[in-house]
Amino acid sequence: MSSARPIATTRSASGMPTGRLAVWWVIASEIVIFGGILTSYVMYRLAHDSFAEQAAHTNTWIGAFNTFVLLTSSLMAVQAHKAADSGDGAKAARFLHYTCLGGILFILVKSFEWASEIGRGYTISSSPFWSFYYTAAGLHALHVIAGVVIMFIVAAAAKQYRDLHRVELIGVYWHFVDVVWIFLFPLLYIAK
Amino acid sequence: MSDHAENAGNETHGGHETHHGDYVRVWKVLLVLLVVSVVGPIVASAIEHRPTALAVTLSTAFGIAVVKAYMVVKNFMHIQFTQRFVPYLVVTMLVFMFLLFAGAAPDVMKSEGRNWVKPGWIAENADYRAHHPDGSAGGAH
Q1: What is the largest CA-CA distance in chain B?
Q2: What whole-number distance in Å separates Cα of residue B8 and Cα of residue B4?
């Protein structure tokens, strides 16, 4: 094996490439992070009726639109994975760019939504609900931004037919970010 | 794109079999579920029988969220084609999440127990103070 090849493309003792193993470890740790926030939110939501009163001020349609955006971007990410598996780096890069567009649109909509809510006086210190809301959605938004940045880097390499295995890895991460939002949406926008 | 690329359904990539399915169809089903999860609670709000309304809201909002997450993990993340320890790893983390809930929920969700009561709750609950003028905690119920 050439020393120039990244170690993530080689097999590890686990029987799977190190890169894929690392991504699943990241996801496992992320489940604990987001799981801790979500379970804490559910406990407080069930114990305090004031959470429902505050949740009534979130905009369900904006949340639904962002869910649509993330689901569609996940479709683009998995299409990029399929293209990378078939060795078509240019097509994989194109689909990754579409995925990035979805992530950027998600952040733009979120920015508009937060500006509107803060303008109406709902800030992170307004009440326990809004503290959870901005913490959970903010942490998720940071993951979206990180995913978009990494995806642009992976797409640039894929376009030159380099490191195509990374297309799958960033895709798996992106789908996880999608799954987190799938649970945040009903908790923060629907349960009123 | 070449025929080879178009027909690349199942192939070995990076040490495991990747089985690509009809992703657009999965996406369409996810969108239908999204619509149901939005419309369900709206319909539930019009139902006067509260237990029925609650059941409709929980099943359409949260039940469908579980289904959507499962579909993404299975069809997009291909967890079933990874090594067997990966699903076990994920399930273990989810179990930790429920353990956190089970361990912390009594403290967060209850205001009093057999031998304890939250001081802040006593201050807010005039009825409790009326029955416990000495401010004693628990054991009286």
Answers
A1: 84
A2: 6
Q: What is the pLDDT of residues B28-53, one digit of tens each?
A: 999 999 999 999 988 988 888 888 88
Instruction: Classify residue A9: in a domain, yes or no.
Output: no
Does residue B4 fall inside a structural domain? yes
Chain A residue with CA closest to B35: the answer is: A64
Structurally, chain A folds into a number of domains equal to 1
- pLDDT(A114) > 90: yes
Residue B138, pLDDT > 70, answer: no
CB A89 within 8 A of CB A161: yes
Minimal C-alpha gap between B18 and chain A (Å): 8
β partners of residue B117? B112
Residue B9 lies in a domain: yes
Whether residue B95 lies inside any domain: the answer is no
The confidence band for B18, taking pLDDT boundaries of 50, 70 and 90, is low
User: What residue numbers bound the domain in which A170 lies?
Assistant: 16-43+50-190
Residues in chain B closer than 8 A to A56 (CB atoms): none
Q: Which residue of A has its CA nearest to B105?
A: A43
Question: What is the residue range of B61's domain?
Answer: 1-77
The verdict on a CB contact (< 8 Å) between A176 and B97 is no
Best mutation target, A43, A69, A170, A174, to test chain B (most B CBs within 10 A): A43
For residue B87, what is the nearest residue in chain A, using CA coordinates? Answer: A24
Q: Looking at residues A143-156, what average pLDDT do you find? A: 98
Residue A71 clears pLDDT 80, i.e. is over it: yes
Number of domains in chain B: 1
Tell me what pLDDT residue A11 has.
Answer: 63
Å from B72 to nearest chain A CA? 7
Q: Does A76 fall in a domain? A: yes
Q: Is residue A4 part of a domain?
A: no
3-state SS string over A91-154?
HHHHHHHHHHHHHHHHHHHHHHHHHHHHHCCCCCCCCHHHHHHHHHHHHHHHHHHHHHHHHHHH
Evaluate whether residue B82 is within a structural domain.
no
ipTM given for this complex? 0.91
